[in-house]
Amino acid sequence: MAQTRRPVRWGLLGTGYICSEMAKALALVPDARLAAVGSRDLERAQAFVEPHALAHPDVRVHARYQSLVDDPQVDVVYIGTPHSEHAAAARLALTAGKPVLCEKPFTLNRNEAVGLVALARERGLFMMEAMWTRFIPAVAEAKRLVDAGEIGEVVSVQADFGVASTLPPKHRVFNPALGGGALLDLGVYPLALASYFLGPVSAAQAVAQLGTTGVDVHTLFNLRHARGGLSQGLCSLRTPTPCQATVYGTAGRIDLQAPFFHSEHLTLVKPGQAPVERHLPRRGMGYAHQVAEVHRCLQQGWLESRVMPLDESVALMGWLDSMRAQIGLRYPGE
C-alpha cells in the first residue's frame, strides 16, 4: 500500500489582500493545508478566517506573530505583511525554526536581504522570495523554449506593469514608511522577469515621477545584463499599461500575453513562420504554483529554490536600491 504523504501545514503571517489570495491558493494544492493565521489583532484574524472556513476548516488564529511562528502545528510560514515588515517577520519565523516563503519584494533593501539569507543558511532552513510569476505554466514554458534554443540567443526583454491607482494617499502603496512606490510594488515583476531570461544585472538606469507622498508613482528603467543582454521595464501607479512582456532572441521572440505576470497564453514568433499560440492554464490566480514549488523543495530537502534562488533575491534588492537612489527615494530609517 502506498504511503499517504502528510499535508504541509501553512501559517499565514498577515491578514491583508495577498494573504487572502494565498489562502485561496492553498486550497488548490492537494497536499497543502492552512493551519493558522497570525495578526496583531485577534478580531481581524478571526474575520480573515471566516470566508475561508469551507476550504480550510479548523484554522487556528493567533493575536501575536510570535505565537504563530511558535505554533507546533505550523510547518511553513508565509510572510504577507507590508514591505517594511518583511525582514522582521521573516527573521521571527526563522528564529523559531520555521521555513519561510516571503512575499516580494523580499525585503526593503539589500542589507536586510543579506541578513535574512545569512540567518536562513545558519539555521539550515528553507527560504524563498514569493516571485510567483516564475512558476506559472506560461512563464515556465517560455523559459523551456528559450533554454531549448527556439528563439536563438536571447538579446532583450521588455515588460510593463501599470495601473491607474485610485487608492488614498495613506494606503501602503503610497506610504514611504511602509516601503511604498511603484518600483517595489510593481517594478519587481519586470525586473525579475528580465533577470530570469537574461541572467544577472550588471548596470541599471532609472528615471521616475515622484508623487505627493514622496514615493515613485511612474518609473522607467533600463538594464544591462552580465551576459550582454539589455532589458527595459516600466511600472506605474498613474496609468494603466498593457502589462505585456516580450522576450527577444536572434531567431524569434516570445510574447507573454497580458497580463504577463499571470498569463495563460504565449505566442512563439519566428521569421517566415506562422506564429504558434499556446494556451497554458494556471491554477487560480497563479499563486498555487509557487506553493507547489515550496513543497517540492521541502520534499527534496533543499534549502532554496533553483528557480528563485536566494542570491538572486539579494542581487535584485541591490538593484532596486540603486534605482531608488537614482530617483531620489529613500525610506525612513535607511
UniProtKB/TrEMBL annotation:
Keyword list, A-Z: Oxidoreductase
User: Which parts of the sequence belong to the Gfo/Idh/MocA-like oxidoreductase N-terminal domain?
Assistant: 8-128
Q: Where is the GFO/IDH/MocA-like oxidoreductase domain?
A: 140-254
Q: Name one Pfam family in it.
A: GFO_IDH_MocA
Which GO molecular function terms does the record list? nucleotide binding; oxidoreductase activity
Q: Which SUPFAM superfamilies match?
A: Glyceraldehyde-3-phosphate dehydrogenase-like, C-terminal domain, NAD(P)-binding Rossmann-fold domains
Asked if the keyword DNA repair belongs to this entry, the reply reads no
* Annotated family: Belongs to the Gfo/Idh/MocA family.
> What name is this protein filed under?
Dehydrogenase
